[in-house]
Specification:
This protein is mainly alpha-helical and 65 residues long. It has one domain. The protein contains 3 helices and no strands. It is flat. The termini are far apart.
């Protein structure tokens, strides 16, 4: 309910984000992400893509320059 700011009517809007956060958070009991246990790979998060893109562009610029 915290994500919905205590307003139950907002729950349908925030539920997907809450469930995703749960799936990509390491669980203390297993030491793994639930996503990893189900799919066998680490999730690819948006900031991972941004960092990878930045590093690729940086290496391309370095190679060209």
């Amino acid at each position: 309910m915290k994500a919905a700011e205590g307003d139950e009517s907002k729950w349908p809007d925030v539920a997907p984000a809450v469930f995703w956060a749960e799936r990509v958070t390491i669980q203390k009991s297993t030491g793994y992400l639930p996503y990893y246990l189900v799919h066998g790979v680490e999730p690819l998060l948006p900031f991972d893509l941004a960092e990878g893109t930045y590093l690729a562009l940086k290496s391309m610029i370095f190679a060209i320059g």
